[in-house]
């Protein structure tokens, strides 16, 4: 059930609208926030130098000039940021669908439950199966639930 819902186009649209609304609100209120992002979908202009590497996922804090430069354009979040010791400037463009989490003061205020556009459906299915197995093991470990199992 979970797999079918989170992979449906309707659910993905709902999540994208939700992320857009939250980020729009934060930008309008000039509130510093962070986004955890699937880096496979992120573009930099100009490209970051080879000696600057970011993890995947990566966490961006939008504050100060970065926050002032931020905007939502065509289902993407665009902002200017400086990277590394030399504060190398680049414009970051990331699809809203690649945002995994939005946070304020290191507390999550939104989690994108739809799979990232770069995540393969088989990965989501494997995660769901792992979760179901864990849930079943927890349920079965309670002696009160023995009556639900055939002997």
Notes on the structure:
With 151 residues, this protein is α+β, with helices and mostly antiparallel strands. The chain folds into 2 domains: 2-116, SH3 type barrels (Roll), CATH 2.30.30.220; 120-151. It contains 4 helices and 8 strands; from the N terminus they run ααβββαβββββα. The strands form 2 sheets. The protein has a 4-stranded antiparallel β-sheet. A 4-stranded antiparallel β-sheet has the order 2-6-5-4. The relative contact order is 0.19.
Helix and strand arrangement:
Elements: H1 2-6, H2 9-28, E1 33-37, E2 43-45, E3 58-62, H3 64-69, E4 71-73, E5 76-83, E6 88-95, E7 99-104, E8 107-111, H4 121-141
Antiparallel strand pairs: 1-3, 1-7, 2-6, 4-5, 5-6, 7-8
Radius of gyration equals 19 Å
Q: Helical stretch count?
A: 4
Order of helices and strands: HHEEEHEEEEEH
> What is the β-strand count?
8
Instruction: Point out poorly predicted stretches.
Output: 119-124
Question: What class do helices, strands and sheet pairing give?
Answer: alpha+beta
Q: What name is given to the CATH topology of the largest domain?
A: SH3 type barrels
Number of domains: 2
Biggest β-sheet strands, sense, barrel: 4 strands, antiparallel
CATH superfamily descriptor of the largest domain? SspB-like
User: What is the architecture of the largest domain at the second tier of CATH?
Assistant: Roll
Briefly, what is this?
This protein has helices at residues 2-6, 9-28, 64-69, 121-141; strands at residues 33-37, 43-45, 58-62, 71-73, 76-83, 88-95, 99-104, 107-111.
